[in-house]
Design goal:
Layout: H1 2-23, E1 27-28, H2 29-32, E2 33-35, E3 41-50, H3 62-74, E4 89-98, E5 107-114, E6 125-132, E7 138-145, E8 151-154, E9 159-162, E10 167-176, E11 189-194, H4 199-213, E12 218-222, E13 225-229, H5 238-246, E14 249-250, E15 257-261, E16 266-269, E17 274-275, E18 278-282, E19 285-296, E20 307-318, E21 322-326, H6 332-340, H7 346-358, E22 362-363, E23 365-368
Length: 369
């Protein structure tokens, strides 16, 4: 009896391990798809940053002077534009993202970037700046002290700079004044749009929803859209239904892809990358050219002339190129091990990948940035 219980415990442990492995690569639906209509909106505005320590725009930046004069006139102060100095003022563009379901009175973060020739925005304060959307309406108003997180000091001969001093942020720096018209929960259908369109992934999502709720509620419209019928029992609890649906785990299917960046020598390979059996030979050719000047001086009191003779030394060194047979890779680890055996640098591997792709032995998309 005791031996039988041990077998049951051992079997349960194996089953638990298998379940962990099966869900290790799974993602929730909320990470794979987005509910149609629930989206952010971009906001932008033009404003002034004041309080700078002489690091603002110069007098040659005319729009900063005009903006400052217009603001002073609206405040009831009449000034002469020719006598205005804007060394402590900078013209900026303010951007923000209005999140979905944002209500009037909510606070959102804003980013502030200089558009003139200001050298540093540290210590500045953004004046009241209306933020507009693509429809031209004002949805938020931004104001507050900037957080630049950088420094820039120097003189005529030297300068010390850390990070980027002409851009900053204001946490909770904008107050939402207008709400985006969107009514949630009135339609009996929900449409989910995949962030990365794929027929296999959307099919798995639909199957996961139908299996969890025990009814054919979801159907795949195309590679990038899934439509879900809201059950009658959830009509008055739409939020609960969406929360339960988006918690479901789905294993997404991905394309076999290799992304390389020739500028930085970065190589990223996906899990599905496969290489068929191929022989690769790699060797570098080094050419070293040295310029020398031979000087021949005459003897003392000989009245001769100094003669200079240029000499060029050329040295050619070619590394030994070994022909390495790369067996058919069945996993990303096998592919990496086979490539490491060649002993090439990341930049050389980019050329090797291109050659393998041209030979028809690389079963993946090669994306070059």
């Amino acid at each position: 009896m005791k031996k039988f219980s041990h077998k049951i415990i051992f079997a349960l442990l194996i089953l638990w391990g298998v379940l962990l492995l099966s869900t290790a690569q799974a993602s929730r639906i909320k990470e794979l798809a987005q509910l149609e209509g629930v989206r952010s909106n971009q906001l932008v505005g033009y404003g002034l940053v004041v309080g700078l320590n002489g690091t603002g725009d110069s007098t040659s930046t005319q729009f900063t002077t005009q903006s400052l004069v217009n603001m002073m006139e609206r405040l009831g102060v009449i000034v002469d534009p020719n006598k205005v100095k804007v060394a402590n003022v900078a013209a900026v563009v303010v951007t923000a993202s209005l999140p979905p379901f944002a209500r009037a009175g909510s606070m959102i973060d804003v980013s502030v970037s200089s558009v003139g020739d200001a050298s540093n925005l540290a210590g500045g304060t953004l004046l009241m700046t209306p933020l507009k959307a693509a429809d031209g309406k004002i949805y938020a108003v931004a104001q507050g002290a900037l957080v630049v997180g950088s420094l820039a000091f120097g003189g005529k001969a030297a300068k010390v700079q850390k990070n980027h001093p002409t851009a900053g942020r204001i946490p909770d720096g904008a107050l939402v004044e207008r709400e985006v018209p969107f009514v949630f929960g009135q339609s009996p259908e929900l449409n989910y749009r995949l962030k990365d369109s794929d027929f296999t992934t959307v099919s798995r999502m639909s199957a996961a929803v139908n299996s969890h709720f025990g009814a054919p509620l979801a159907r795949s419209l195309d590679a990038g859209q899934m439509q879900v019928q809201v059950p009658d029992s959830y009509r008055e609890r739409m939020v609960d239904f969406v929360a339960e649906l988006e918690r479901l785990d789905v294993i997404p299917d991905t394309l076999a892809r290799i992304v390389v960046n020739e500028k930085t020598g970065t190589i990223v390979m996906g899990e599905k990358v496969r290489i068929s059996t191929v022989a690769v030979s790699h060797g570098n050719l080094s050419l070293i050219i040295s310029e020398l000047t031979n000087v021949s001086q005459p003897g003392p009191l000989s009245r001769g002339e100094t003669v200079t003779t240029p000499e060029t030394l050329i040295d050619v060194a070619e590394e030994k190129g070994n022909l390495v047979v790369m067996e058919q890779g069945v996993s990303i680890g096998d592919v990496a091990s086979a490539l490491n055996a060649i002993g090439a640098t990341p930049r050389d591997l980019i050329a090797i990948f291109q050659a393998i792709k041209a030979a028809g032995a690389l079963y993946a998309d090669l994306v070059i940035l």
